[in-house]
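Hypothesis: this fold can be encoded by more than one sequence.
Test: take the structure tokens below, design a sequence, compare later.
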């Protein structure tokens, strides 16, 4: 996140579980260059979206009204999943 937000930006990370899902939201306040949605090779927003989809999840990303950037991922979660 900070790679794209600029050298003096701040990022806030929120992780919560709600109704069978894990929600991850990352918001920065930077004015740096935006992430390129056309990158490939498993990196960047396309890679994040592909990895989330592989587990039945979704990703929403885009600029915020105050020149920052927001990424929100939602992944299915089950309390009965095996733990290691």
């Amino acid at each position: 996140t900070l790679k794209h937000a600029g050298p003096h930006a701040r990022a806030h990370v929120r992780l919560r579980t709600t109704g069978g899902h894990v929600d991850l939201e990352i918001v920065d306040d930077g004015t740096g260059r935006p992430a390129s949605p056309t990158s490939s090779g498993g990196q960047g927003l396309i890679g994040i979206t592909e990895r989330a989809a592989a587990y039945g999840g979704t990703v929403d990303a885009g600029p915020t009204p105050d020149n920052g950037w927001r990424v929100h991922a939602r992944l299915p979660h089950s309390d009965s999943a095996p733990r290691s």
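The chain is about 20% helix and 35% strand. The helical segments are 2-5, 44-54.
Hypothesis status: open.
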